[in-house]
Write a structure and sequence with these properties.
0% strand
């Protein structure tokens, strides 16, 4: 066999896989979920670890009412990359439809922290909170149940240290310390609100029948609970070593510091965790003013810390500049919002932090786009493209760049980015963005005089809107389609 034939044969599986994926996406958009599942399943025999394929099949299972299968596929998509936010969103959706509202809320929050610009996570948070309130009365009365997937407590996703900035701080401090015995009273003081979780998990371990069970992902419940307790002990050690109880008496004699200052500096990770959660909660609930004021207060505190006390101070400050910038966008102060997002970008560049750079470039582009400065928006969003992670982010970014080009009457460039957005949306089978992207291509083609292609894309957008039962979108698209058809050659 010749080398050429060998290369050709090697490419066949890849081509077959792409075809099967495309078939799955298209069948999903037509509502033929059972056939789409078959296509995705066959595709997975060629690439057993493909994340997008698992997410696509999970969406089909969700539509078919097979929620446990949907959850299983969502978890499979997260096996290699716990930060894969399409998988996080799909897992949250599956848990929500299973009635596991508390757990769904956890994963909506996690995705929202990773990608705050994606509205689906914020909407998910709102609907999960509403479901909890309707079922129980208020979120404060929600208690952890034995059922469901407890894997969100596991290492590297520890509730007490959710952001990279705090994780880095914990790692550095841990290397300088060793374990020290501590009393139950000290543990309670250090863990604060997490102490009740620790006691609850310890009680679960005493239930012999319970610990023999397994979670939905197949892990032994005993191992999961023990892992949770180990992580809580790790956090306790970290906070204890930050300000060991045996040294506090000596320090009181040597230093005359205020109790408030002492408390903040003794537990920086805990302070930052609570503060960032409060800032996020205020913005999510619509209180942009409260979020802004809280972020400014925290920034003043962080500025007062030395690099020794907070080794990754620049990273934390960048996060706070981003929070303030987002709050100012909601408050309508675009000039000041831009200043803060630019400071976030400067700190990210200095610290060589790609995720923070991506966040800042996105927010700067958003400010420029909302103020009608489309050329500048394109400039910053195009810089973000190499930093994009995942199909959903790629879809909306290409769409937004294309929309800016359309506003600038650069129709060919708009069409190119529209097509790229369609391809990305098809890859992840996201109906909302498939509609948006096809409409963008149709509008571009109309301006370019390519009326047949324009009609074709409007028709596809219309069929997708019908599947979603989106009446407002259907009416707008139908009107545009009718006008486009009049342009067709007779």
């Amino acid at each position: 066999m010749s080398d050429t034939e060998g290369d050709h044969d090697a490419e066949k599986p890849k081509g077959v896989f792409s075809t099967l994926m495309a078939d799955g996406h298209w069948l999903y958009t037509k509502g033929e979920y059972k056939k789409a599942v078959s296509s995705y399943t066959t595709a997975l025999t060629l690439k057993p670890d493909d994340k997008s394929c698992f997410v696509g099949r999970s969406k089909c299972y969700l539509k078919m009412g097979q929620y446990e299968n949907a959850l299983k596929d969502a978890e499979a998509s997260l096996k290699e990359d716990k930060t894969y936010f399409e998988g996080l969103y799909q897992k949250a959706e599956a848990l929500y439809y299973m009635g596991e509202f508390e757990f769904a809320l956890v994963f909506y929050h996690r995705g929202q922290k990773l990608r705050p610009q994606i509205q689906e996570f914020r909407l998910g948070i709102q609907k999960a909170q509403e479901a909890i309130e309707n079922a129980i009365g208020s979120p404060s009365s929600v208690k952890l149940e034995i059922k469901g997937d407890l894997s969100f407590f596991k290492k590297d996703e520890e509730k007490a240290l959710p952001i990279a900035a705090i994780q880095h701080l914990a790692t550095e401090k841990k290397q300088q310390t060793q374990k020290t015995p501590k009393s139950e009273k000290t543990t309670k003081q250090l863990l604060g609100e997490f102490y009740r979780d620790k006691k609850y998990l310890e009680n679960l371990l005493k239930d012999e029948d319970l610990v023999k069970g397994k979670t939905k992902s197949g892990e032994r419940l005993q191992d999961v609970i023990q892992g949770c307790l180990t992580n809580l002990d790790t956090c306790t050690e970290f906070w204890n070593q930050e300000k060991p109880s045996c040294s506090r008496g000596k320090e009181r004699k040597q230093q005359k510091c205020s109790k408030t200052r002492q408390s903040v500096l003794s537990e920086p990770a805990q302070f930052l965790l609570k503060s960032l959660d409060d800032i996020d909660a205020e913005l999510t609930s619509g209180n942009a003013e409260g979020s802004f004021k809280k972020a400014e207060e925290v920034m003043k505190t962080v500025h007062g810390w030395s690099e020794k006390e907070l080794p990754n101070k620049k990273e934390v400050l960048g996060t706070l500049h981003s929070c303030i910038g987002n709050a100012l966008i909601d408050l309508g102060d675009m000039d000041k919002a831009l200043e803060h997002h630019q400071k976030d970008l400067e700190l990210a560049k200095r610290g060589k932090l790609p995720d923070a750079m991506s966040r800042a470039l996105d927010n700067i582009g958003r400010v420029y786009a909302q103020t009608g400065q489309f050329t500048q928006a394109i400039e910053f969003w195009e810089k973000k493209i190499p930093l994009v992670r995942g199909g959903l982010e790629k879809t909306w970014l290409f769409h937004e760049i294309g929309w800016c080009y359309l506003e600038l009457n650069l129709h060919k460039e708009a069409q190119v980015y529209g097509v790229r957005s369609v391809a990305a949306a098809d890859e992840i089978a996201d109906e909302k963005w498939q509609i948006n992207a096809n409409v963008l291509v149709a509008q571009s083609e109309l301006k370019l005089g390519n009326f047949e292609s324009c009609v074709s894309h409007f028709e596809r957008a219309l069929s997708l809107a019908k599947l979603q039962e989106d009446d407002s979108a259907m009416n707008v698209i139908q009107k545009a389609l009718d006008e486009a058809k009049q342009r067709l050659p007779q």
